[in-house]
């Protein structure tokens, strides 16, 4: 194993926090870590990870720019 679990978790943190946003990535890391530790005892490690992945997919559908989005221009 070459650390696939860490790579997946790191990718989820960056996507959830917003690409290029350090504060968003830190907030997402804390949130995912706490949420994972709360879910693990009740659901098990595998089901907890599946639930987190489903929730992140739903979150990305609603807010694709992440938690802390870069300010951008809007074309009128």
TrEMBL record:
PANTHER family from the UniProt entry: ABC TRANSPORTER PERMEASE PROTEIN (PTHR11795:SF447), BRANCHED-CHAIN AMINO ACID TRANSPORT SYSTEM PERMEASE PROTEIN LIVH (PTHR11795)
Transmembrane annotation, as ranges: 12-35, 41-60
Molecular-function annotations in GO: transmembrane transporter activity
Cellular component, GO, one term: plasma membrane
Name of protein: Urea ABC transporter permease subunit UrtB
Keywords: Membrane, Transmembrane, Transmembrane helix, Transport
Source organism: Klebsiella michiganensis
InterPro entries membership: BCAA_transport_permease
tRNA processing listed as a keyword: no
